[in-house]
Amino acid sequence: MSTSFTSPATDADATAADATAADATGTAVGDDRYTFDDVSVVMGTYDEAAAIGTVLSDIDDVTDGRAAVVCVDGSSDETPEIAREHGARVIEQEPQGYGVAVREAVLAPDRPVVITTDCDDTYPMEALPAFLAGINDGADVVSGDRLSHGADAMPAFNRFGNHAFAAAASLLLRKRVHDTTTGMRAYRREVVEAIEWTENTGLSAELLIRPLMRGYDVRERPIRYAERLGETKLDPIEGGAAIAKSIVKVSLQERFR
Ligand SMILES: Nc1nc2c(ncn2[C@@H]2O[C@H](COP(=O)(O)OP(=O)(O)OP(=O)(O)O)[C@@H](O)[C@H]2O)c(=O)[nH]1
Ligand SMILES: [Mg+2]
């Protein structure tokens, strides 16, 4: 574990890191490096039939079918059937919000590297090798930063809110963070298992803040962000208020723990 917090690499840095740590399919360069055989890609899925086929095909293509996929599903549409057709493990759960699903998803796998994504085709699955490369480079958490690239595809209200969350969290943490609510991150499994998670809508911020405040090596890396397929599951005002509350609560808990 280290206490460094590395702020975004550029895309050029990202490409260089990918090239040195793993090849395009995540095949290890050295014996002690993880490959996609060591990776689970996990997500909450809630009525995502419009997107799930694309997301799971992209994961399959990029990882050469080697990453395990876990979907914690609360859908009433055909999402779970599509997931199973793609070889994903589907854990059924009543819909109770983002964090309830994603907490179960990050704790389900037994592989040493866990990568989260949303199931709405907003996140770049082609960046999976770069996330794995970050872990192989020594990071405990690699966090996708959508905002440094502008996040033009994000609704303006959400973009404004996400900048505000990052600014507030940076003040509370006394460390610059750029995107606290991203859905795409890689974690060493021991990190997610070492910490007790309490938040629901604010889980994404919690998954960044607690490891950072405990001295884990957390690195942000810029990623592209695309327009969502299908309907949003988040009410921007209610969800935004819940996230703001989680950021303050979790930051103060960690400061005084
Ligand atoms: N199982 C389950 N999954 C959920 C629940 N709520 C959200 N999700 C999933 O969690 C992910 C994040 O939800 P989104 O609706 O994309 O929320 P968001 O990314 O903040 O908002 P967008 O800008 O619309 O993408 C998606 O893959 C959802 O399907 C839930 O109650 N249960
Ligand atoms: Mg989303």
Topology:
Blueprint (H helix, E strand, L loop, with lengths): L4 E2 L4 H11 L17 E7 L6 H12 L4 E6 L5 H7 L3 E4 L5 H10 L5 E4 L11 H9 L4 E5 L10 H18 L11 E4 H6 L8 H11 L4 E5 L13 H20 L2
Parallel strand pairs: 1-8, 2-3, 2-5, 3-4, 6-8
Antiparallel strand pairs: 5-7, 6-7
Helix pairs in contact: 1-5, 6-9, 8-9
Guanosine-5'-triphosphate binds next to strand 2, strand 3 and helix 4.
Helix-strand category: alpha/beta
Query: So, CATH architecture?
Result: Alpha-Beta Complex
Gap between N and C termini, in Å? Answer: 19 Å
In the sheet with the most strands, the strands line up as 1-8-6-7-5-2-3-4
CATH class: Alpha Beta
- Element order, helices and strands? EHEHEHEHEHEHEHHEH
Bound molecules: guanosine-5'-triphosphate, magnesium ion
Please estimate the helix content.
Answer: 40-55%
Provide the gyration radius in Å.
Answer: 17 Å
Largest sheet: 8 strands, mixed
Under CATH, the topology is which?
Answer: Spore Coat Polysaccharide Biosynthesis Protein SpsA, Chain A
Gross morphology: globular
Total number of domains: 1
